[in-house]
Design a protein that fits this description.
One of its GO terms (molecular function) is DNA-binding transcription factor activity. It comes from Amycolatopsis iheyensis. It holds the Pfam family TetR_N. With 193 residues, the chain is mainly alpha-helical. Helices cover 77% and strands 0% of the residues. The protein has nine helices and no strands. It has helices at 6-31, 34-41, 45-51, 55-77, 79-88, 93-109, 111-137, 147-166, 175-185. Helix 5 runs antiparallel to helix 9 (175-185), helix 6 (93-109) packs across helix 7 (111-137) and helix 6 crosses helix 8. 24% of the residues are buried.
């Protein structure tokens, strides 16, 4: 039997994650049945679960994939940029939002999921904190507030934005709000407005 290349396996895994993201966003965790996952990915259950132990492992991998993407943006451009991308319609924002909401719901209702997710969620917090520390060292970040407090502030703003969008409230006009959030964490130099 011929061996399947790592590139092929990686592409198949990406196909499963991309299709599953749409399915979980549309139907939620419980509604994303194996049949719906098969339809969304275009693959059989055998192919899907060859790559992922079970539906929860698939969902965690998807959420982790999104968290890694966000952490990469945070490391380069900051958490406010993640929020700007969400407003601008960056990479599959509706599907990302659906996944994020499902993570939030499961964190509230599923202690086992909460324990497994805790290991993964630290990536975003760490990336945000490190970015803020670099900004402080460069003299761009206010120094009268602890970095951990600023990190928590930005994460709360992100959660508030996600909730706002999830309720179907308008996103138009939120750019200036994010400008204010960004300005709040910046260091103000004498003589600047």
């Amino acid at each position: 039997m011929p061996r399947v290349s790592q590139d092929h396996l990686d592409a198949r895994r990406r196909q499963i994650l991309d299709g599953s993201r749409v399915c979980f966003a549309r139907y939620g965790y419980e509604g994303a049945t194996v049949r719906r996952l098969e339809e969304a990915t275009g693959l059989s259950r055998g192919a899907i679960f060859h790559h992922f132990r079970d539906k929860e492992s698939l969902f965690l991998a998807l959420a982790e994939d999104d968290a890694i993407r966000m952490a990469d943006v945070v490391a380069e451009q900051g958490l406010v940029q993640v929020m700007r991308d969400l407003l601008a319609g960056g990479d599959h924002p509706a599907d990302w939002l659906g996944t994020r909401l499902e993570v939030s719901r499961r964190l509230r209702t599923d202690p086992e999921f909460r324990a497994r997710w805790a290991e993964r969620s630290e990536q975003l917090t760490t990336a945000t904190r490190l970015r803020l520390l670099r900004q402080r060292e460069a003299g761009n970040l206010r120094d009268d507030v602890d970095v951990d407090v600023l990190t928590a502030f930005l994460e709360l703003v992100l959660e508030g934005l996600v909730s706002h969008l999830a309720m179907g409230l308008p996103a138009a006009g939120l750019g200036p709000v994010l400008d204010l959030v960004e300005e709040t964490v910046r260091r103000h130099r004498p003589g600047t407005a």
